[in-house]
Every structure is written in C-alpha cells, then in structure tokens.
Design brief:
Length: about 150
Amino acid sequence: MNRRLLTVAFLVAATTLPAPAAELPTVTLTIGSHKLVAEVVATVEQRATGLMNRFSLKPDHGMLFVFGRPAPQAFWMKNTYIPLSIAFIDADGRILNIEDMRPQTEETHWSKGPALYALEMKKGWFAERGIGPGAAVAGIPRVKADP
C-alpha cells in the first residue's frame, strides 16, 4: 500500500474510533477488607455512557454511579465490551443485590429495591472476594447528582 493510501486509511480509522473518556473523578472504596478505585459518574450524560466503548479495566478498578434519589435502577450492556458485575447499593451504603452482566446485550438488570448507587466491576470481582448482599460499602462520596 502506498504512503497516501496508508495516511487516508489511518485518518478514516482515527475518525471512527470512540472519543477518549473525559477524565472522571475517582474515589477509593472499601468493602470489608477489600479496597477498590472507582470512577464517579453523577450526571445523566456520564451515567448514560458509563463504561461503554472501553475494552479493559485495571485490576480493582470500576465505576460508581450516583443517582439523585433512591429508586429502582436498571442497567444494560449495549456498547459495553467488558463483562461486568454490578452491585446495587442503597442510601445507607449497603449492597442490595449483585448481578452479572454479559457484554453487548440489552438484557435489563434491576436493583432489588431503591438504589442510590451502583458499582460496576469486572465480572466475578464481588464473588471472588465473598462479597454479597448486605455488605457495607465505605467511602462513598456525598456527591450532588442529577435526578
């Protein structure tokens, strides 16, 4: 392939890649004796994007979704390439339920009660550490979130 065609191919590829995620604030959370780092998303736009269009997560890293008020929450995995587990968390910081989610599906995963937070980690992260419903999540920031 000649140089001009390579340049055109590169420009086409570069314009079709998803834009890099904006730098999000992070927080260190603790569940039992386990620490993790979570990116915090609290706006409607940030929550809608979540971990879409990413292909990896660092070990012990995830994303904390913060909602404006406790309510039943639902997630799906459209345009998400990483298998994830999600912990729905109530206003007191207790895990309500944990669901495993398959990549690139539109299957809906619901909280089992009013959740103020949701924490996404690599699939199996919670199970591998013996973390289940009722576990307390410490270090959740008090963030003003969009409704």
